[in-house]
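Entry:
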Amino acid sequence: MQPLRRITRYCRRSRLLYTAVIPFIVICILSGIMAAMFHRSIPHTTEKAEWVNFTKTLVIHSDQRVSPQRLTILSLTLCSQYLFGVPFMNITKILYGYWFGFLSGLILCTIVEILCTLPIILWAASNTHTDESLIHIIDDFREKRCFWINLLMFQLTGLPIYTKLPLLMHNAVTQREFTISFFSVTIVMTAKNTLVGTLIYHYPQHAVILGTVVGVLTILPSLMVVYLGTSVFQSRSFWVILGTEEREEENEEREDGPLRQ
């Protein structure tokens, strides 16, 4: 339990508790509530019949492939998922491909994502404060020449954007590095989901193969979390941080000792 106490102490002292941990917990609770409420309503397979029934429940009837009603509801839903942690973002992106086709869906979805998240990134970049401990961990990655791969893996974890921003807000990475990595991963994952939606609409006969591929890709964020956790634990700066927290804790106990007596 000692390492956990020191990590908690470090997060509280470095403001990570307020900029990353608490927002993450709140978003997880909200996502859990929303998932429980709408779990039965959303599709769980790539069978076209299931998606046809699902789109009928959305009450968006239009003969046009790209209709303002569909675009509006998907855009508002996607923005709420980025801003408030509403779950099922992959379902929203799949619907872009299902309704608008791969290329149109990818372009429309990407534009909405940029308009929604770029102001958040710019705000975070203008509200920075230096955290030397976090910078040391990132510098270790830079020295080992694995900074970009770790940053891209971090963006692939599927964490809400608010829990990724502390990297930028603590000056551990530059605005350019964060923006490039974030939107590179976002575009790739959006392309994956819109492609799935297009294939469901046009090639339902390949639903079994498609479902297998989607299932494998679904566990990718979890694998990225394990990979990043291993990389951080292997960083010498991480253990230096814990050692520093241990010494500060001991100093506080020695200072409090006479007062208690």
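The chain is about 80% helix and 0% strand.
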